[in-house]
Design brief:
single chain, Butyryl-CoA Dehydrogenase, subunit A, domain 2, 47% helix, globular, 3 domains, binds flavin-adenine dinucleotide, alpha+beta
């Protein structure tokens, strides 16, 4: 039921899957089978058991990180990893609708190493497309080729949602900028080649709340790695970035000086589309597992799916998943059309991740004791659903945006 059609004016706008996308999805399946599955088999439990995949201080064990790096590099070689990036820089330039379908498709296979085959927070994002001159060759293109990884440094110990109140500063000294402050919860900080660090360059009084913020490319040997920030189920991926008198040359300013916050805001829709697509795919995966179990597992002489309290959980999950998917496809299409999608992207991110949360909770309930078992993926889905409801703007921030777009707040 993934085909949604919509009429606009006299011309029909179809969301039916085209042949090119079908071929991409088929080749994704082949790639996972041939390149990713053998690595997963080799790692066995080490990959998804946090007690085995992390060192005592939280760091990911080398063999897991090596497997992740291999998936990323091979996927980039095969043209999947950054397929939504422009062809002129080595991407495939696919539409947002195709990117949405590919992301959803990968997540439909559940949690695992295969999720890393499409660029996540460690990969190239539209902000990096602001790269100019030597930055293109040194940072943007290697990132698209999967040879280098990055990190996005906005959140600080005292500011998360309220990012413009950041305390990290950068002051000009001759031809250099001097950065001071600290970031936390920075995904891929422990493994990145370079980070994109946001710092206040002009005081609020002079530049306004959203102005006066600049993004700097900071190489990994230029910042100090602080403690790991371990979210349950994602141990070893996030960490503090400490900046103590870090001197950065002028040519490492990414995009416009003082304009980084506006830049970042203009790319929010893509991040929300991507996270929502992951949530839609993971929800489908869970619904499939629930349907199978509800037909197989018997209680009081019949399959549990024959009890209305069980079947209704699956039916409601299916209805929510269908609605979220339709909203995702429509958002991707609107973005391809160059439309403003501030409200739609917030609605989609909030709804798709909230839906995943509800489906994951029902999946645990349907599987009952085995739903709670470490051997099954349900609690892991519940954890990731919880994370997705916080990152890239919390539920509350998404709903604030919708309220503001409707003349409230
Ligand atoms: C796994 C993970 C990965 C992350 N990766 C990155 C990364 O790579 N880079 C990065 O920069 N950050 C990253 N973050 C940080 C993430 O972006 C922040 O956690 C998020 O923005 C929320 O900030 P906070 O945790 O400080 O919560 P706060 O902003 O302090 O919010 C606390 C609570 O108050 C609510 N709240 C705040 N303001 C309002 C308001 N105006 N109206 C209503 N409610 C409000 C929030 O919704 C929340 O419920 C990551 C976090 C996690 C957990």
């Amino acid at each position: 039921m993934s085909v949604v059609t919509e009429q606009q004016g006299h011309g029909g706008v179809s969301f039916a899957q085209d042949e090119e996308t079908r071929l991409i999805l088929d080749s994704i399946d082949d790639f996972i089978e041939q390149e990713v599955k053998p690595l997963e088999d080799e790692l066995g439990e080490t990959f998804d058991n946090p007690r085995l995949s992390n060192e005592a201080d939280g760091a990911v064990v080398p063999e897991v990180q090596e497997a992740a790096d291999e998936v990323r590099r091979k996927s980039a070689e095969a043209g999947f990893y950054a397929m939504n990036m422009p062809e002129e820089y080595g991407g495939e330039g696919v539409s947002n609708v195709t990117w949405y379908r590919a992301t959803r498709h990968v997540s439909e296979k559940g949690r695992g190493l295969h999720e890393l085959m499409l660029a996540g927070p460690e990969g190239p994002k539209p902000l990096l497309l602001q790269a100019e001159g030597e930055q293109v060759e040194k940072y943007l293109e290697p990132c698209i080729r999967g040879e280098k990884t990055t990190a996005f440094g906005l959140t600080e110990p005292s500011v998360g949602s309220d990012a413009p109140s950041m305390k990290t500063t950068a002051e000009k000294d001759g031809d250099e900028w001097v950065l001071n402050g600290s970031k936390q919860w920075i995904t891929n900080a422990p493994h990145c080649d370079f980070a994109q660090i946001f710092a206040r360059t002009t005081p609020v009084e002079d530049a306004g709340r959203y102005g006066g913020i600049t993004c700097f490319i900071v190489e990994s040997d230029e910042f100090e790695l602080g403690s790991y920030n371990n979210a349950v189920g994602l141990e070893g991926r996030q960490a503090e970035v400490l900046l103590n008198d870090v001197r950065i040359p002028e040519d490492r300013v990414l995009g416009t000086q003082d304009g980084a916050f506006y830049n970042a805001m203009s790319f929010l829709s893509l991040g929300r589309l991507e996270l929502g697509a992951r949530a839609v795919g993971l929800s489908r995966n869970l619904l499939d597992l629930c349907k199978e179990y509800a037909n197989e597992r018997e209680a009081f002489g019949k399959p549990i799916g024959e009890y209305q309290q069980v079947s209704t959980k699956v039916a409601k999950g299916r209805a929510r998943n269908y609605t979220a998917d339709s909203a995702g496809l429509r958002l991707a299409w609107q973005m391809d059309e160059g439309q403003q999608t501030v409200e739609e992207s917030s609605i989609f991110k909030w709804y798709a991740t909230d839906t995943l949360w509800q489906i994951a909770d029902d999946a645990v309930q349907i599987h009952a004791s085995s739903g709670l078992s470490e051997d099954n993926p349900f609690m892991d889905h519940l954890h990731i659903a919880r994370v997705l409801r916080v990152v890239e703007g919390t539920d509350e921030i998404q709903l604030n945006t919708v309220a503001k777009q409707n003349g409230l707040l």
